[in-house]
């Protein structure tokens, strides 16, 4: 199969998932063409089946806002017709689903081919940005025009039906993790640098947006360390980082908190961690929590959105209401103080992540693609066909 994948190339969960999916499909012999404005962060190895097409957005003094969506749709057309792409899989609705609709129409008109478009909804494209009145009509239209729609959790599926007038079935294909990559033994030297006196290592990873409530993480950690010698490791970066830093200083715990910035080797950091905190106001899924579980790190999280679909309360970690700092801290302390319980939770977390292993989930996408495959590949059409 020749598959076009459109995604954000950044550290966000949707881009990570899309890249890992593309890599897995390429390993299975499919030809995968990534179309985006930058090399995706997780696309860091050579694979003969992977192609990368950069969307260039020519600027002009007239443009206060360079038209990315137009450039993206044109690049999609170019890549599809010149590489005989069988289908287009776009991740995150805005603006990928509407650009895909435009590309589909152009290809239909110029070559007579109806290229299947699959849209995977990831979270804030529905629950935050997509709901905004400015975007909602285009989001609704382009989701409905997709040949298939998938959501990364049951919760996101329900949220989509609640927020938009969707006339089609939304299929749930949960996010996945390559568990084999996360089953690592922690490097002792690394652990000693972070926790020189054998302190417990508490970790949070995100894009530090408001929705993640990173100040809750700092407050929970402040309570934990009153009872359990521990260090807090912040992975990632974003707008709320300065606030988290100054709260740490205000609470007098700045020496115990370390910001390590954006990291590609999450498995190395998770391998030395004892507990993962995810305090989000909403998470459609919480891919970072799943990666933690795959590494055998129990998760203390809010019960928002799709988190209860992966983090099982009292089994793989604990859930609490959004903003319940005391509750989350109490759970964390109880777990960290009880070595036997911590070990059981570690094992449970690993087992739970096996359910979302890449080997179970990627075939679901392949089966979906197969439903839309047309007989016979299209003939290549030169890009010059579109300009005089
Ligand atoms: O969390 C973010 O803000 C990034 C965002 C993204 O699209 O990159 O993450 C969303 O998609 C991830 C992958 O499907 C999910 O694991 C995250 O839960 C979801 N984020 C939210 O719903 C807030």
Textual characterization of the structure:
The protein is of the alpha/beta class and 388 residues long. It folds into 2 domains: 2-176 and 358-371, Glycogen Phosphorylase B (Rossmann fold, 3-Layer(aba) Sandwich), CATH 3.40.50.2000; 179-354, Glycogen Phosphorylase B (Rossmann fold). It has helices at residues 13-27, 68-82, 93-111, 124-127, 136-145, 154-163, 179-182, 188-194, 214-227, 241-250, 266-270, 287-294, 307-310, 325-337, 339-354, 358-372; strands at 2-6, 31-36, 50-54, 87-91, 117-121, 148-151, 170-172, 200-205, 230-235, 257-261, 275-278, 299-302, 317-320. Strand 9 (230-235), helix 10 (241-250) and strand 10 (257-261) form a beta-alpha-beta unit. The two termini are 32 Å apart. Bound molecules: ligand GMT. Ligand GMT binds next to helix 1.
List the helices and strands and how they pair.
Elements: E1 2-6, H1 13-27, E2 31-36, E3 50-54, H2 68-82, E4 87-91, H3 93-111, E5 117-121, H4 124-127, H5 136-145, E6 148-151, H6 154-163, E7 170-172, H7 179-182, H8 188-194, E8 200-205, H9 214-227, E9 230-235, H10 241-250, E10 257-261, H11 266-270, E11 275-278, H12 287-294, E12 299-302, H13 307-310, E13 317-320, H14 325-337, H15 339-354, H16 358-372
The chain binds ligand GMT.
The site of ligand GMT has 20 residues, from helix 1.
Summarize the structure.
The chain is built from 16 helices and 13 strands. With about 400 residues, it is of the alpha/beta class. The structure holds ligand GMT.
